[in-house]
Write a structure and sequence with these properties.
Keywords: Membrane, Transmembrane, Transmembrane helix. With about 525 residues, this protein is mainly alpha-helical. Helices cover about 65% and strands about 0% of the residues. The chain is globular and about 65 Å long. It starts with 6 loop residues before the first helix and ends in an 11-residue tail after the last helix.
């Protein structure tokens, strides 16, 4: 197990040292780009390569001895992560430089100065996104009542939360409400968050405390609506939008200490919300009716006894809960440790620290540890069983009429029991970065594919130079955290489900409305 591997006790081979040296060279290259050509950091490919350098290249290089001890062809593993990141960085530097410079220069522009209906364009954009968000959430709540959402369960009945979260999204049969909530949480609210942060900055500088407070209230309301499933990662992801919006507003020219403070401050809303949700006074103010909610989503479960759930004997009730819970994946058990031990109750400390540990730490564990951990499984599977092929990418496989292979489930069921030391859920999904997933599908050819896919992200530059200037910083702030998603999920999934492509289209649509709506005087002026 990688957690038990100590590279200093195990010794460092020459090839292991070479991997560390290559990681150091990449660090120097990124530092030189940041100092000499900072405008290149507006390129999404550079964001992703920088994040991959920190969360993939360095850990894989430091722990290469661990992978060398059990992978049949560790040199291919090294070529995969080193080649993708280093060659990707070398190739992206000369591409689209003029467009990157133009986009960088627009960070200081004001954009449209007046809107068709006489209110400021930034407020109009926020209002439009708020209306679209309410419509999307309304479509979802029309199918899934509030009392059947994961967030409601988290407040009133946390003991059944893993099941409630699955019922509130994955087990909803109609596609429209699922897509509506996903659209709200991954695209509409992040972009709206970026715009609200810019309003908070503007009103904070003019000491308009009432307007600042109004923006904060709107921000918290939007976040709560975006996280009706109760997933821990949503609040943290939106907090990162706050941080990156601030950094782009400053053209990423901030003191590292200021950046760290900004990150901590941006996490405060997420911590505050999870603390309030987890507070004892909110418990037992209602109850999560499993029977009712299962009927809402059209899932029938055989009863273990007659009568409703509340009237059953405690033993039967517990058995029935276990039966229902066994039908769905409990994701938290497969993506993160409990961050607990047998002595934890003796030193629990303040409740807010426990809530932070239970709600925030697993999210960072998933982003920083899991992709590389499961990535090794994908690499080992290819080296033992051969490439899975195009069937591993469901959307493309269906278009081509190729049988679909649920690779994350297949690999999770194969390696999960070995890693965790016990049986895992039959619906386990071992998610990893497209860097490793593509290797499992296509073998060494994945190196060239990965580089091409990373460079393809830079088509967003052509949107950056076209969206209204006041939308650019919020759009960058909302898109930058998506770089982390590319390390957790497959490429098309991030474009379509996690909002990378949708947010770009939303910003372009808002720009089109503000520019071409009748009676609109659109003027771009330098700040």
């Amino acid at each position: 197990m990688i957690a038990e591997y100590n590279p200093f006790e195990s010794g460092i081979t020459g090839f292991h040292a070479l991997n560390i040296l290559l990681a150091m060279v990449t660090s120097v290259l990124l530092f030189l780009i940041f100092v000499k050509a900072r405008y290149l950091f507006i390129k999404p490919s550079v964001w992703l390569l920088a994040v991959s350098h920190v969360l993939v290249q360095w850990p894989a290089a430091l722990f290469f001895g661990y992978y060398q001890s059990w992978l049949p062809r560790p040199i291919e593993f090294s070529a995969l992560f080193q080649g993708t990141i280093i060659l990707g960085l070398v190739l992206t530097v000369p591409l689209f430089r003029p467009t990157a410079k133009l986009a960088w220069a627009r960070l200081g522009a004001k954009g449209v100065t007046n809107s068709p209906i006489g209110i400021s364009p930034d407020i109009l954009a926020i209002s439009i996104l708020a209306v679209v968000n309410v419509v999307a959430i309304g479509l979802y709540l029309a199918e899934v009542p509030l009392q059947c959402t994961g967030l409601y369960s988290l407040v009133t009945s946390p003991d059944v939360f893993p099941l409630a979260r699955e019922i509130s999204l994955k087990l909803v049969k109609p596609a429209l409400p699922r897509y509506a909530l996903t659209l709200a949480s991954s695209s509409i609210v992040p972009l709206m968050t970026g715009l609200l942060v810019m309003q908070i900055i503007k009103h904070g500088r003019t000491q308009s405390f009432g307007a600042t407070l109004s923006c904060l209230i709107c921000l918290i309301a939007a976040w709560l609506l975006a996280d009706l499933t109760g997933a821990k990662g949503v609040f943290v992801a939106l907090s990162l939008v706050v941080t990156f919006t601030f950094l782009w507003w400053r053209r990423i020219s901030v003191n590292p200490l200021v950046a760290a403070i900004a990150l901590i401050c941006s996490l405060l809303p997420a911590i505050a919300i999870t603390t309030v949700i987890g507070a004892a006074p909110f418990r037992d103010r209602g109850s999560y009716d499993i029977d009712f909610c299962l009927n809402v989503v059209g899932l029938s479960i055989p009863r273990l006894s007659n009568g409703n759930l509340k009237a059953e004997q405690p033993a039967l009730q517990e058995r029935r809960k276990e039966l229902i819970a066994s039908l769905v994946i409990k994701q938290d058990e497969t993506i993160a440790p409990s961050f607990d031990d047998e002595k934890s109750h003796e030193r629990e400390g303040p409740k807010y620290l426990k809530i932070l540990k239970d709600n925030i730490m697993p999210v960072f564990y998933r982003a920083a540890v899991v992709p590389l951990q499961t990535g090794g499984w994908f690499v080992h599977h290819e080296q033992m069983q051969g490439p899975i092929g195009i069937g591993g990418i469901p959307r493309i496989a269906r278009l081509l009429g190729v049988p679909v292979v649920d690779a994350p489930n297949l690999i999770g069921r194969t390696y999960g029991p070995v890693y965790y030391g016990h049986e895992v859920s039959p619906t386990i999904s071992a998610s990893t970065s497209f860097i490793f997933a593509n290797y499992a599908y296509f073998g060494p050819l994945a190196i060239a594919m990965n580089i091409a896919l990373i460079l393809l992200l830079d088509i967003a530059l052509f949107a950056f130079v076209r969206v209204n200037a006041f939308l650019l910083v919020p759009l960058l702030g909302a898109l930058t955290p998506v770089s982390f998603k590319f390390l957790e999920a497959e490429y098309l999934t991030v474009w379509l489900t996690h909002g990378y492509g949708v947010m770009i289209l939303l910003a372009l649509a808002l720009t089109f409305f503000l520019k071409y709506c009748p009676h609109n005087a659109a003027v771009e002026a330098k700040a």
